[in-house]
Amino acid sequence: MTDLIPLIPLGFDRLDPEDMQTRAAAFVDTIRRRRSVRHFSSDPVPLDVVRHCIASAAQAPSGANKQPWTFVLVTDPELKRKIRFGAEEEERAFYEGRANDKWLRDLEPLGTDSNKPFLESAPALIVVFAQRSGPEDEQHYYVQTSVGIACGFLIAALNDAGLATLTHTPSPMKFLGEILGRPRYERPFLLLPVGYPADGCEVPDLPRKSAAEYLVEHHEG
Question: Which of 95, 96, 143, 200 has its CA 20 to 30 A from that of 12?
């Protein structure tokens, strides 16, 4: 029988309701201003801040605590250029044939196309890889869910730290593993440009669903 993991006291501070409300309201106000940015300043970002945000992502829960993720931080201009060329090749195939007409119509109001200059102009890229197994074929569980939660932590942490991001998922993304020399048991999950918005940056004025559309509550009585 496998020995149980030792237990330690939970580090948890119970807040009074007023403080909880203040914190929750402040967080939602901050996260509401988060937008996907496609026009980045070339100004460098403090990499220790980015590393702290990645450390936050690595605290996410995961199936059987396998922590099936790898975060690759890229600032090298030549690697960014290779990633851009690889992404644009896949995106051209997507826009010119892989995507059905409905998908393209839904994308049309956003003005996106196969040109991805932000992959070079953003000062940093974070490429998130999902580990389908461990290096010795160790079994991993709920990999997509676990890595998705970690990416949510990462995006929220970067936003809270004052950095802009874009969730980019060119499909397929096999080229990322090849460019970055990742092992076969890792699969690209998300390509995340990180930086400051360019001066005069504009984003689509997108509505969000109301609480009545996304929240369902069941209460006693």
Answer: 143
